[in-house]
Amino acid sequence: MHAAAHGRIVQLSRIRKEIADLTKNKRCYIKDFRKIQKCKDVFQFKILGDTSLFKDLIFTLDLDVSLDYPFKPPFLKFCHPVYHPNIDPVTHEICSPMLLQENWKPGTTIEDVLLNVIVLLNEPDISRPVNFEAAADYINDKAIYMAKFNEVVKKWTV
Asked: Where would I find the UBC core domain in this sequence (predicted)?
């Protein structure tokens, strides 16, 4: 067996185990974790809001672990707009220090990534904004930030 083929088998085994652990543990904040692309390891899932800011909200995200995971971080993005300093307003990609190649550790699991998203939603990393308007609002006037956040939320929850 070629080394590349063996590596892919190991990768798929790890991904399957991590997905099984997520679904077996029935994490209350993660719902509907499912594969959405037949030929790639791309999954979609929902996370439930867990604080007063996100109470009753359900966020839908795509997670792509098909390229060199776990040696490279997965690609993660929201399936809808979110007004947040660390979420690109056009592509909905998440900018998290954990997901940067220079910070990524192969021991990091998919569950670690999902928990990081929840933390990032509640506590934006203002040192790495990709939505500069949201970052300025978050820093200068949280009431304006919340109003804009809620306006965007209305568009995708209706």
From this structure: 10-158
